[in-house]
Design goal:
Length: 810
């Protein structure tokens, strides 16, 4: 690649420094790395965990396979242990889940091993200099000059400090700012970084009893152990203790070997597993370091042509392993903005203002994310040290009960926002959950419009209540129903009202009311009433299947959406026009988080997906057809009507039954068949459900619309809309007609709003490029051409397609 007329001086041959150097080299940017140590990869006694967000960038740099191979044993299992070393909570499939969801494993290796891999990948090693400790930096605009302890000077366009928490570059940057702009740096930051914990970390060899591919966390009061296995016969370990109080700046202690040995002696007999004590780790160590653990994110990472990255700008506790990985992320962010700016200014050198703009963009992009992760590390460390009685209770009694899915949601928040190099191709790795920079846009929360959505649904439910129940009282329908119940005769047809259906008085009382209402409609001589009820049932069909799908969706477990039979029962008793807004309100609340839309957790079991359409046919479609069969016996017709009432409730129940039968069949199939079943996904079956129910609903809509247009007796407006719902009615049939018209209308409005929310949500989480305005146009057209039921099915078909995973990516 042709070199660009720009030079970067990197202070520190750390993971951050060498990652940045390799990124610059791959983009043809000149650089020099000044490393203070006499060798580029000294054994400093430290290990490092490389996580998916770090490995993803290393993959772009051509280092990922070497890192995984060097580590040998990716983490396959995570075990949390008590003070006796006994396990009380574990993630047995941690490794498989991590790779399946995020494309990369979690691996541990010596820090020097990773540094060596990065160094080996740099082609021009003459640009990596050792024994060159930076001591002074001078901004001699438009360049910057660095002087080392050896007396050598280096001139470049910018200086990047990757020289750790005690960064010389940061100190020099502050001095430069103090001379030029004293307000730039907050003076309190000199002593701002706090340290609450100290840690002895080490590397041991030949320790029996530590299972390979296992990460152990041992929880104690005010101390904890973090023990991942390493390559070969290596075991890495961290003994963390509370300092007793939070210290700052120069008060943060530095420990001697004697203090380390005293600390070791105090914990010599601690159990880390039921068969391994800490003494066995320490006796077999090849290196160890005792150090305090400051944790902080600085307010300013740059000044003019100087910038800090890695620990020099954001320092983590080691428990989550994010320090080195976020150092790589920040190096990638700097490379992205620098290359973008250089490419747009090919004919001139970058001014100090342009460089400051690059640095500002980097800090703006990274500051919030690293602060969140630093706080998360601190929170986890406090929990594992059981710092308070409340945390002790949570650690001992609540943590074992937390669903593993909750922890996997945390992974999404941790890994998916990670950035990558925008100018280098991303190697193809199968993964279920896209990273944010693979989406159309970075996901955002609903914000204040979410509150407006809730308010809209509540207002809609209130309006539905007025049009359905208040209007029934006002127009006289309720009185006519009471009259039928009292007289036990349906007045218009002088048909006796059947009194017994199930033998349970309370249920039979409800069924008598519903039978009276439906009988007056399905046997009406008015074609408008017959067309309306046909149309209404066709709208409800896709909604019943949607309720069922969401009820069985694993992501909705432990929410109110997980009880579709309850919602269906409420719809039958109180009207779907009133209940649907409340259901969609619940759905909007449950789906409010960004993590809700992650594909692995939205998928249904294949057996369940297969069962929904047969359940809809036998539970709803066939019973609905039987309503309109020309019965000679009115008593039998009332029985059919009564036993149609639980039809929407039967669909999720039958789905559960059919799912069990299908799953049993899968279990009894031969090996080849089982393999084929495992390779199936829910997506194709759910799409079939949406297509089938949507087509049925669309056909009824088109039939109704065309029939009304060619008929002289039926008006589409009169079928679907009521001008005055409170006007007195003359008979029960007309009153029920008004009720069903309003019920259908309010259902349609709720569906419209639900479709808008779904379209907006898919846009805001980056899975779709369809704007709210464009989506509104499509939904309005859908309502006009195929009706609300078919439109809802189409939106859910599209939604399911995007939630399928890889289709969400560009």
């Amino acid at each position: 690649m042709t070199a660009k007329p720009f030079k970067v001086i990197i202070a520190g041959g750390s993971i951050a420094g060498l990652s940045l150097a390799l990124m610059l080299e791959k983009n043809g940017i000149d650089f020099v790395v000044l490393e203070a140590y006499p060798s580029i990869a000294p054994q400093a006694g430290a290990s490092i965990g490389v996580l998916p967000n770090g490995l993803r960038i290393l993959d772009q740099l051509g280092c990922c396979d070497e890192v995984v191979a060097m580590a040998e044993y990716p983490v396959e299992k995570v075990i949390f242990r008590n003070s006796a070393g006994q396990p009380f909570w574990s993630l047995e499939d941690f490794g498989r889940d991590m790779v399946d969801r995020h494309g990369y494993p979690v691996v541990f290796l010596d820090r020097r091993m990773l540094i060596q891999i990065l160094y080996d990948k740099i082609e021009d090693k003459s640009k990596v200099l050792t024994s060159e400790r930076v001591v002074a930096i001078e901004n001699a605009l438009p360049h910057v000059t660095v002087t080392t302890q050896m007396g050598n000077s280096y001139t470049g366009d910018i200086v990047v400090g990757a020289d750790g928490i005690h960064s010389t570059v940061r100190k020099q940057m502050w001095q430069e700012a103090q001379r030029t702009d004293p307000t730039w740096i907050d003076p309190s930051e000199r002593n701002a970084p706090p340290a609450t914990y100290a840690c002895i970390f080490g590397i041991s060899r030949g320790v029996p009893g530590i299972e390979k591919g296992t990460l152990n966390s041992v929880l104690n009061e005010h101390t904890s152990y973090f023990i991942p296995s390493g390559p070969g016969d290596r075991t890495y370990w961290f003994l963390v203790r509370n300092l007793g109080k939070t210290m700052h700046g120069s008060d943060i202690p530095r420990f001697t070997k004697q203090e380390e040995e005293a600390m070791v002696k105090e914990h010599w007999d601690d159990y880390v597993t039921p068969t391994v004590r800490f003494s066995e780790l320490y006796k077999n160590k090849i290196s160890s370091v005792y150090t305090s653990l400051p944790e902080y994110v600085y307010k300013k990472w740059y000044f003019q042509r100087i910038m800090t990255i890695g620990d020099a700008s954001h320092k983590f506790e080691p428990i989550t392993g994010q320090g080195g990985n976020n150092a790589i992320e920040t190096a990638a962010s700097l490379t992205n903005y620098l290359i973008s700016t250089l490419n747009s200014n090919t004919l001139q050198l970058l001014s100090t203002e342009q460089i400051s703009s690059v640095f500002e963009k980097v800090q703006k992009q990274r500051h919030g994310r690293v602060w969140d992760l630093v706080k998360a590390s601190h929170t986890r460390q406090r929990l594992e040290c059981m710092e308070t009685p409340a945390l002790k209770f949570v650690a001992k009694y609540v943590l074992p009960l937390i669903p593993k899915q909750a922890l996997k949601d945390k992974w999404i928040k941790t890994y998916c926002p990670a950035i990558s190099l925008s100018m280098l191709p991303q190697p193809s790795r199968p993964m279920q959950i896209p990273y944010h920079d693979e989406l159309f846009r970075a996901p955002v929360s609903r914000g204040w419009p979410g509150l407006m959505v809730y308010a809209a649904y509540i207002s809609l439910a209130w309006l539905a209540f007025q049009l359905l129940f208040v209007a029934m009282e006002g127009n006289g329908t309720r009185d006519l129903i009471r009259d039928v119940i009292v007289r036990r005769v349906m007045t218009e047809k002088e048909v006796p009202l059947r009194q017994n259906y199930t033998g349970w008085q309370g249920i039979d009382r409800i069924l008598r009311v519903l039978a009276a209402m439906f009988f007056s409609t399905v046997t009406s001589s008015s074609p408008q009433q017959i067309v309306q009820i046909f149309y209404f049932l066709s709208v409800v069909l896709p909604l019943v299947t949607i309720f069922t799908v969401e009820g069985f969706r694993p992501k909705n477990k432990w929410t109110l959406l997980a009880v579709p039979s309850l919602w269906a029962t409420l719809c039958q008793l109180r009207g779907i026009g009133f209940i649907a807004p409340l259901y969609f309100l619940t759905g909007a609340f449950v789906s409010r988080s960004i993590e809700y839309y992650s594909p692995p957790f939205t998928a249904l079991p294949v057996a369940t997906a297969k069962a929904i359409l047969p359940a809809a046919i036998f539970g709803f479609i066939i019973p609905s057809m039987l309503l309109f069969f020309p019965y000679n016996d009115a008593d039998i017709h009332q029985v059919v009507i009564a036993f149609w009432q639980p039809a929407p409730v039967l669909v999720p129940i039958l789905t559960g039954v059919f799912s069990y039968l299908i799953q049993s069949q899968i279990g009894n199939s031969n090996n080849d068949g089982s393999k084929q079943m495992k390779e199936e996904t829910d997506l194709s079956h759910l799409k079939t459900v949406y297509k089938a129910t949507g087509i049925i609903s669309a056909c009824f809509h088109i039939f109704t619309a065309v029939g009304c247009m060619v008929s002289n007796d039926i008006s589409l407006t009169n079928v679907l809309l009521r001008k005055d719902s409170f006007a007195p009615i003359s008979n029960l049939g007309d009153g029920v007609f008004v009720f069903f018209q309003n019920d259908c209308l309010m259902t349609a409005v709720a569906v419209f709003l639900c479709c808008m929310v779904a379209i907006r949500d898919l846009y805001r989480v980056g899975l779709s490029n369809v704007t709210l305005l464009g989506g509104m146009g499509a939904v309005v057209a859908g309502f006009g051409f195929v009706g609300p039921g078919a439109t809802a099915a189409a939106v859910w078909y599209w939604r399911e397609h995007l939630l399928g995973g890889k289709d969400a990516r560009r």
